[in-house]
Amino acid sequence: MLEPQVKSDAQLAQRIMERDRFAVLLHLHTRGHFDAGKGLSDERIIRDLGLRPARGEPLLRGLIRAEYLEQSRSGPGLVLTEKGREYIEHGAGRRRSVRF
Known about the structure:
The protein is mostly helical. It is 52% helix and 6% strand. The chain is built from 4 helices and 2 strands, in the order H-H-H-E-E-H. The chain has helices at 9-30, 42-48, 53-65, 82-91, and strands at residues 69-71, 78-80. It is globular.
């Protein structure tokens, strides 16, 4: 009999973070917040996705560092970069997470 694979707390936390990154990108994509338009505030994204600020703020900063998100050029708020848009439209495939 095969024993079930046990995931460490760190592995589970990583998978949750990857899933939440994808949720942020998909949320901005669905709402049409691309690099040319007005973005959503950090607070709004965190609230819309039901995240706590202590979890959501580092999540957004990581997506900015990885160049999936950036500050909107035409107003306040975050928007998808071309890289973020491309990932949602073509790169993710069946995957529902973002690993970097």
